[in-house]
Amino acid sequence: MITRMSWELSVFGKNLCEGSGISDLMDDLGEALAGPGDVMMLGGGQPANLPEMEAIWRRRMEEIMSEPRQLEKMLGHYDVPAGNEAFRVSLASLFQREFGWNLTHENIAVTMGGQTAFFFLFNALAGLFPSGDQGKILLPILPEYIGYADQSVGCDFFEAIPAQIQKIEQHEFKYLIDFDALELNRNHVAICVSRPTNPSGNVLTDAEIERLRAIAKRNKIPLIIDNAYGAPFPNIIFSEVTPVWDEEMILTLSLSKIGLPGTRTGIVVASKEVCRQISSMTSIVGLTNSNIGQEIMTPLIESGEVLTLSKKVVRPFYEERSKLAQSWFHQEFPDDLPYRIHRSEGALFLWIWFEGLPISTKELYQRLKKRGVLIVPGEYFFFGLPKEIDWPHVRECIRVSYTMDPQVVREGIKIIAQEVVSCYRESLAC
Length: 430
Ligand SMILES: Cc1ncc(COP(=O)(O)O)c(C=O)c1O
Known about the structure:
Oligomer: single chain
Distance between the termini: 55 Å
Number of strands: 16
CATH topology of the largest domain: Aspartate Aminotransferase, domain 2
Number of helices: 12
Strand content: 15-25%
Low-confidence stretches: none
Helix content: 40-55%
Order of helices and strands: HHEHHHEHEEEEEEHEEEHHHEEHEEEH
Largest sheet: 8 strands, mixed
CATH superfamily of the largest domain: Type I PLP-dependent aspartate aminotransferase-like (Major domain)
Bound molecules: pyridoxal-5'-phosphate
């Protein structure tokens, strides 16, 4: 009989091998999508399967297969670690045409998904320095994307500022950056925000971005903007804002939310030096990237078709679904229940705040799971806060995805409402 040895894990191993919020979330998502279909999956970041987009992917695969040697090249070649040159040239000219940015393909590096781009960027910029200093990433508005939380291979490197809450009428709210609390020190090595924000669907205004840009510039550190849901693609952004970039910023995009998460393609737009660093990390960690998403997308970017699809198919679909899901919340929740939905300005989720919820949303998650509904408890999105801050808001929010079949979303929301109402009632009965 073979007995299993167990090895002690390094700091890197401990940080990455022992699970995290994002691993639980991805396990839930994968199991729900692979299972018999009886789970109401309102949890993960899975984009919707849009028939118009699926037809485009099919058409592109047929074109690739009918073109001599194209399929063989896509499957059989290692490309350069910075990303396919034609893909990067097409992106650079799209950004020049659309936004007037001054850049070339050398300002673009491809990664194995946006998630990997953040792993590289955060660990290269922050953490332990040879001087003994510990570099920190400043998150100027919390809650922020769960997927950043456990990416450090060494010491914790996030410091976050709780959002200011603006209550709007009876059942809505919006987060704003608390600029008065935004004090930088010499340990801060970058400022990072997702726009639109996962989980809240908040979109930082142009004025907020300009202020962050000025603060970053003054402190000679990069402003990182995670544009996984933003313009020009997938364009899941319902408010009119201007995308900005210059060499002092780092912008990331992804092919996932337009419908190609399985191709694992992330895009970093940055100075040439940062792009060379990303390329170096790609070659060390994985040699190179997957070719498939880049090959599918290049002609769509060159022709501008990706813009039309994003504007005419992708954005309207999610905007409509967001409105529907909000109307179902309002129908299912009693008007006197203290629930508020974050103003839905983009991304795939509704972010619901139950002020004074008698149990934590981690407990609510367990209760809903027993009833076949998966959501994401809000606690995971509040990281990087000083230990002495006890902010009840952390335990009072949930993230609900509205990308699944409308009947599933509707039924899920009904069950969420029943369960939340019971929680408040049980606490009154005590
Ligand atoms: C804000 C944000 N950034 C980055 C990612 C990473 O996406 P991917 O690695 O699929 O490009 C996600 C995924 O959900 C996200 O929500």
